[in-house]
Amino acid sequence: MNTLRQRYRLLAAVMMVAAVGCLLFWWLAVRPYRLQVEDELQSLDKKRTSLRQRGWSQDRAALEQLLQARTERLEGSGPATPGLRRRAEQVRQIASAMFQERIQRDFQTPEGFVRHASNIDFREAFNALQRRLAAEDIWVAPEVLKLSEESSSPYTYQLLLQVWTLERLSEVIREHRLEVLTEARVKVRSGSGDRAAARLAFEPIVAYYLTPDHPLPCLLGIPVRARLRGQPSDVRDFLTALTAAGVFLPPVQAEIYAEDPSRPVAVAADGTGGGRVELDVTCSAFFVFPGGDTPPPLRPAGARPVAPPARGGEAAEGA
């Protein structure tokens, strides 16, 4: 009898241990998996509801067809129909073409240009441009132009970009027979007396970023403002030429003013109306910053973010 009782006790103990083991297995293994599945089902249901509310189809075949169409739009369907990716690269090449030849000639690469452009390079280029403009009776004043031989910056390449931009713009102005208007209140000393300063002015360099947290800009805009006068046909051709082959100075803002026909300056030599107009235009050159279009590496946990350069309206510090 005692032996049978001991066997029942042992069986009861084994059953209790098995029950505790099953409970522990459910609690430690089955329950977390079940909660995970429930969370995923809830998340999937929320996504489906969100997609339905935004008008997305729930049909797999329709979604695959839409994905194919979007992929073709991005990548293109052949050489004759380039996609958005190829077009973006073409625009990038056009935007950087105006400076590319000079950078390759003097600095080999954009990286070398950013690192090795010196104050000597800037002053030589600025003085040469100043003499060329003076020969065309265009006199620049530092207080109007916002740039002078004495200008300094920790990013000298940006000063050089401004000089190159004004140089190319002045060539397009000359080619289309436009007159640069002057600021009568500001005088520039010359060998033949004081001359009114030309209404040419640089505006702050604008930095464009691939993402808000990217440490480097992908593009720098170099805007310059000019007040010009000429025949309407010449003004029209000038605006068209700003984005012609070999030039990329697209107008950011342009305003055209008609002259008062009763003013003597608006009357042609033969006594007929000259019909000239004034153009107040801000156009911008662009420089593709090396490395700015590369996605930033993933930041390790706990690492401090790099302070980004200044955004639009200021020179791109740190660039």
Summarize the structure.
With 319 residues, this protein is an alpha+beta fold. The protein has helices spanning 2-53, 60-75, 84-107, 110-116, 119-135, 142-145, 156-175, 232-241; strands at 76-78, 81-82, 179-180, 182-190, 193-198, 200-202, 206-208, 219-230, 251-258, 277-288. Strands 3, 6, 7, 8, 9 and 10 form a 6-stranded antiparallel β-sheet that branches.
Describe this structure in words.
The chain is of the alpha+beta class. Helices cover 47% and strands 19% of the residues. The chain has a domain at 90-288: Ribosomal protein S6/Translation elongation factor EF1B (Alpha-Beta Plaits, 2-Layer Sandwich). It has helices at 2-53, 60-75, 84-107, 110-116, 119-135, 142-145, 156-175, 232-241; strands at residues 76-78, 81-82, 179-180, 182-190, 193-198, 200-202, 206-208, 219-230, 251-258, 277-288. Helix 3 packs across helix 4 and helix 5 (119-135) packs parallel to helix 7 (156-175). It is elongated, with a radius of gyration of 34 Å.
> What is the H level of CATH, i.e. the homologous superfamily of the domain at 90-288?
Ribosomal protein S6/Translation elongation factor EF1B
What's the total count of β strands? 10
Task: Sketch the major β-sheet.
Answer: 6 strands, antiparallel
If you consult CATH, what is the topology of the domain at 90-288? Alpha-Beta Plaits
The helicity comes to 40-55%
Uncertain residue segments:
268-273, 296-318
Overall outline:
elongated
Total number of helices = 8
Task: Estimate the strand proportion.
Answer: 15-25%
How would you state the average pLDDT, rounded? 81
**Which structural class fits the helix and strand makeup?**
alpha+beta
Radius of gyration, whole Å: 34 Å
What CATH architecture label of the domain at 90-288 applies? Answer: 2-Layer Sandwich
